Amino acid sequence: MSCNILSVAASVPEEAELFTNPRRAKAPAVILLTTGVTAAGLFVMASVGAQTKPKAQAKPAAPKTAAAKNETVAPSGAPTPEQIAAGKKVYEGNGCSGCHAIGGKGGNAGPDLSNTGANSTHTPAWLQSQVTNPKTHTPTSTMPAYPGIKGPDLVSIGLYLSSLKPAGASSAPLIPVPVKVAPVSAAVVAKVEKLGGSVRQVAQNDNHVEIDYHMTGASVTDAALVPLATIKTTVELNLAKTSITDAGLANIKGLTGLKTLHLENTKITDKGLAHLKGLKELAYLNVYGTAVTDDGIQQLSGLANLKKLYVWQTKVTKAGADKLKAALPKLEIVLGFDAK
Ligand code: HEC
């Protein structure tokens, strides 16, 4: 788990607990897995019951459940090359290639696995159950069950198999999978954390990150923005209530994927907003409680994706807001009570 969950919000107890406690982070997947096993088991009993060999079905169920309780859920995010290499070893060590071919090598008693990961149902968890109990997927399966593959071995073989797909292929999923990006390196995450921030992956299958400094607040200075310049996969940044200044914002100029930016209750001024001109994906900007003026916000007129701008408790006037709205008709500008 540790390698892919990037969220360590030392300063945010609830969030840290939610995202770093492996038990809680894992719980839904375990339930899913267990439910899957139970459902499949019921299905097997109901539909094939008497005709097939009940012993063969009953047996793998026990190790499977035990294994599920034991760290068998794949970590979130993209597998690392190390995990894939480890999974390949497990595959090779268990004679899978006697029946399966990968890249033209291996037997043909079972399906070719060269692109097995390209099938959107073949998630790491699905592949794990295929290994430990193939009958959960195909009640009449002739593939032997491998209840002995468990723990980290099971995780890595699941990840290895899921990585088998044509280069650059999309897995045609039901819900669109975001463009794959590399996870933020542990060293960079550590830097941000040292400066009082947290780096959190936006979703299990998406390595884009949200960076949050607002919980640390006033002790966060421009120095905290320096490492951000390298984290191009940042989609959300919260600097509210920190002591950052206009100069510090120069570091986020290049974060062109940024969608949400919180600058409320900071010392930033119009000068700082000049650094945001290139953030073309920006959809949400909050400068509540800053010294920003009408002139300052006109610098945002090129941000075609901007949908919400909070300028309550600033020097922005209705006239200034209307001027920006003329350039960005889709933009909603929240001026305060009057605007509602
Ligand atoms: C004795 C032959 C045999 C061996 C050994 C074997 N399999 Fe299979 N495997 C099959 C057959 C047959 C299927 C087709 C579906 C079924 O019967 O479950 C299959 C299906 C699969 C699938 C699903 C593929 C698909 O496209 O649906 C995966 C993944 C898989 N095997 C992985 C493995 C792994 C990993 C190992 C080694 C740990 C292994 N198999 C060992 C025979 C084998």
Topology:
Elements: H1 13-20, H2 22-47, H3 54-69, H4 81-93, E1 101-102, E2 105-106, H5 124-132, H6 151-162, H7 186-194, E3 198-203, E4 206-212, E5 234-238, E6 260-262, H8 270-273, E7 284-286, H9 294-298, E8 308-310, H10 318-327, E9 332-334
Parallel strand pairs: 4-5, 5-6, 6-7, 7-8, 8-9
Antiparallel strand pairs: 1-2, 3-4
Helix pairs in contact: 2-3, 4-6, 5-6
Structure description:
- The chain has 340 residues and is an alpha/beta fold.
- It has helices at residues 13-20, 22-47, 54-69, 81-93, 124-132, 151-162, 186-194, 270-273, 294-298, 318-327, and strands at residues 101-102, 105-106, 198-203, 206-212, 234-238, 260-262, 284-286, 308-310, 332-334.
- Helix 2 (22-47) runs antiparallel to helix 3 and helix 5 (124-132) crosses helix 6.
- Strand 1 (101-102) and strand 2 form a beta hairpin.
- The strands form two sheets. Strands 3-4-5-6-7-8-9 form a seven-stranded mixed beta sheet, covered by helices on one side. A two-stranded antiparallel ribbon has the order 1-2.
- The chain is built from ten helices and nine strands.
- Bound molecules: heme C (HEC).
- Heme C binds next to helix 5 and helix 6.
The CATH topology label of the largest domain is: Leucine-rich repeat, LRR (right-handed beta-alpha superhelix)
CATH superfamily of the largest domain: Ribonuclease Inhibitor
Cα radius of gyration in angstroms: 25 Å
Corresponding CATH architecture of the largest domain: Alpha-Beta Horseshoe
Return the domain count: 2
In DSSP terms, counting alpha (H) and pi (I) runs of 4 or more, how many helices? 10
Number of strands: 9
Low-confidence stretches: 1-74, 170-175
Main β-sheet, spatial strand arrangement = 3-4-5-6-7-8-9
CATH class of the largest domain: Alpha Beta
Helix and strand succession?
Answer: HHHHEEHHHEEEEHEHEHE
The SS-based structural class is: alpha/beta
Helix fraction, binned, reads: 25-40%
Task: Sketch the major β-sheet.
Answer: 7 strands, mixed
